[in-house]
Amino acid sequence: MVTFAAAPTARSTHDAAVERLRAARSGAGRVQLAKPSSNLFRFGDRDRGRGATALDTTALNGVLSVDPEARTAEVQGMATYETIVAATLPYGLMPLVVPQLKTITLGGAVTGLGVEASSFRDGLPHESVLEMDVLTPSGELLTVTPDGEHADLFAAFPNSYGTLGYAMRLVVELAPVKPFVKLTHHRYPTAQALSDAIPGFVEAGPAGGVDFLDGVVFSPEEQYLTVGEFVDAPMPGARISDYTGQEVFYRSLQQRPVDHLTTHDFIWRWDPDWFWCSRAFGVQNPAVRRFWPRRYRRSDVYRRLVALDQRYGASNRVREALGGTAEEMVVQDVEIPVERLPEFLEVFHREVPIEPVWLCPLELRGERSWPLYPMEPGRLYVNVGFWSSVPEKPGDPWAHNRLIEELVASLGGHKSLYSTVHYDEDEFWAHYNGDAYRAVKERYDPDGRALDLFRKVTGRR
User: Fold this and answer.
1) In terms of Cα–Cα distance, which of 103, 91, 153, 102 is closest to 126?
2) Within a domain: 207
3) In terms of residue numbers, what domain contains 160?
4) CA–CA separation, 217 vs 222, rounded Å?
5) CATH number for the domain including 162?
6) Could you tell me which of 439, 448, 438 has the C-alpha nearest to residue 138?
């Protein structure tokens, strides 16, 4: 059963919460957001938040309004996509791009990027933002739009990770939905065959029955593209699948060529098993799954378990005690030009023993580019996501992550910054447009009250 959100957050409640945050920000030195959950994978710097004032964001996690005629929603910055979807689906609407995990926040997806199976058509979450209220590091509250007085901040906000300010309120576009999504899984024997097929599906688009497009690579010989199409009702005799119970979604790609989900369950199809990462906790074992409470089959639960393990190094200590080797966590999302995808996968399969791998085609929605993540408008990329660990190379605990960074750069790609970053400072700013960043940073944080982007994502001081 789908449970939808209750009444929207009152504007007076929102305004009071913002003022409290603004007052706390203005009177503090270094700050950080006090969020109940996180989807970042930077665990190494345990002292990152020490000495910083924690800003309470619990009153900024709701939806202020939904306008079904204009197809827009006014949303608080710390609202999770789970909350937003619950507020918009009763109107037959959803955000243009809904990142795969329920506890990703709208503000987080805009400042830290996000991607999903509608990204081949609708780009990245920040491209559907019409305006934002941004609390700057100095405590100033600014309303920013694409073409207004603070257009430079609007453009630089994506991929700034809170170093230029925090989004308090956002107005975003919404898209109409139908009750169900029909899934068709196309299998390809090689990465080249899969890569060659992607542009055709992108060109077909919704008019050709392609509302969503993503894929999974199980091995160099077994890979799938999944086409999702909105439908009013399943085909006669078709089952409506439920992957919140005993079945696991990603395995269904190998088991049934055609599938149907409610739109709600399609949006969250990856969350119950955190794509496939729940297998690390035994949750995909039928005997374990039967007794693992359904309410705890969620990405945020698994992520907390990983955070505990990383904090105390438990799994590596066990491996070493049993005579094995420590493992290097390799959790990354990268964007590769579609024509270079076979090259990337060839090296990846040879050097980084991680399977499966997620694929998500994406293209910027409009003609503009975004300075801190400079993808080319009109160029088709594929997001490649891989989230696991591999045996460390002796004497080089981050060898695989650095190899990936070098490979991505050599292929004209980009790397998301939600996880570990190993570039040196000059190389980092070359990839992420240091000149543009410094100009905006100087205007909106002249006293350096927030860390700069390089120090924020690397933990280096």
Assistant:
1) 153
2) no
3) 11-177
4) 6
5) 3.30.465.10
6) 448
Q: What is the DSSP string of 339-371?
A: GGHHHHHHHHHHH-----EEEEEE--SSS---T
Answer whether residue 135 is part of any domain.
yes
SS3 annotation, 176-218:
ECCCEEEEEEEEECCHHHHHHHHHHHHHHCHHHCCCEEEEEEE
Distance CA 391, CA 393 (A): 6
Asked if residue 146 is part of any domain, the answer here is yes
Domain assignment present for residue 30? The answer is yes
Six token digits for residue 367: 């003609």
List strand residue ranges (DSSP E) for 288-435, in order: 327-337, 357-362, 381-391, 414-415
301 alpha-carbon distance from chain centroid: 17
Average pLDDT over residues 154-158: 98
For the chain, the domain total comes to 1
Contacts of 115 (CB under 8 A, 6+ apart): 97, 99, 124, 333, 360, 362, 383
Residues in the chain: 461
Q: Are 382 and 332 in contact (CB under 8 A)?
A: no
Whether residue 6 has pLDDT greater than 80: no
Evaluate if residue 209 carries a pLDDT over 90: yes
What is the pTM (predicted TM-score) of this model?
0.92
